[in-house]
Amino acid sequence: MIKFRNVTKFYHPDTYALKGVSLNIRPGEFLSIIGQSGSGKTTIVKLLTAEERLTKGSVVISGWDISNIHFREIPILRRQIGVIFQDYKLLPQKTVFENIAFALEACGASGKKIKKIIPQILKVVNLGHKAEKYPRQLSGGEQQRVGIARALIHRPKILVADEPTGNLDLTNTKEIVGLLERINELGTTVLLVTHNRDVVNMLKKRVVVLDHGQVVSDQKVGRYVL
Ligand SMILES: Nc1ncnc2c1ncn2[C@@H]1O[C@H](COP(=O)(O)OP(=O)(O)O)[C@@H](O)[C@H]1O
Ligand SMILES: [Mg+2]
Fold first, then answer.
1. Site to substitute for ligand 1 among 37, 43, 53, 215, most atoms within 8 A of C-beta
2. Hey, where are the domains in the chain?
3. Which of 101, 110, 176, 224 is the most exposed place for a label (fewest CB within 10 A)?
4. What pTM, to 2 d.p., does this model score?
5. pLDDT tens, 172-211?
C-alpha cells in the first residue's frame, strides 16, 4: 500500500506544487494520474523516490514512512520502486545489454548474476535480439522497452512511469501500455503519469486528476476529462 497523507510540497515559500494530497494505492493496483502541465504529477513521483522532500504530511510505502528518510536508506527505497521516464534516460555510448548491466553493477551485482539476469529481463520486454544494439539504433518504443527492462532489474513491487509515451506515436504507445498492463498482471503496482487521452481511455482503470497540486477527481474507471 502506498499512502499519501495530506501531502504538501513547496519548492519556494510562496508557491506550492502539492497541497493537501491524500491518496491510497493498493498493492497490485494500476493507477493513472493525469493533470495539466505544472499540476504536480512529477512531484508525486519525486516524493516516492525521495528525489524531493515533502513540506508537510507523510508518504508511507508498505508501512514504511519515507517522509524523513535518511539518505543512507534511499538506495533501499529505490530498489523497491522502478521508474521510467519520458526521455528514456539511456546511456548513448552503451549497448542495450550494457545499459542494463550498468544499473546492476551500480548495485554490486556480480558478472555472473548480470549475465544470467539480463537475458531474462530482455525477454520480458521482447528485446532479446537487440542486446548488442546502441540506443540510436532502436525505435522510440524499443528504447522505452529498454527503460522498462532497466526499471525491472530488482523486481520492484512498484513501477512508476512519468509520461512514458510522451515521445511515442500511437502504435508504440499501445505497445508500451500493453507491456505495463502485463507487468501489472504479474503483480506489480503500476503508477502511470500521462497526458495522453488515448492511454487513459484504453486502460479503463482508476484515474486520479490533479489540478494545481490538488486531487480534484478520483474515479474507478476514469475517462479523460481535461
Ligand atoms: N525543482 C523545482 N523548483 C521549483 N519549482 C518547481 C520545481 N519542480 C517543479 N516545480 C513547480 O512545481 C509545480 C508542479 O510541477 P511538476 O510536479 O513538475 O508538475 P507536472 O509534472 O504536473 O508538470 C510547477 O508549478 C513547477 O513549476
Ligand atoms: Mg511532469
1. 43
2. 2-218
3. 110
4. 0.94
5. 999 999 999 999 999 999 999 998 888 998 899 999 999 9
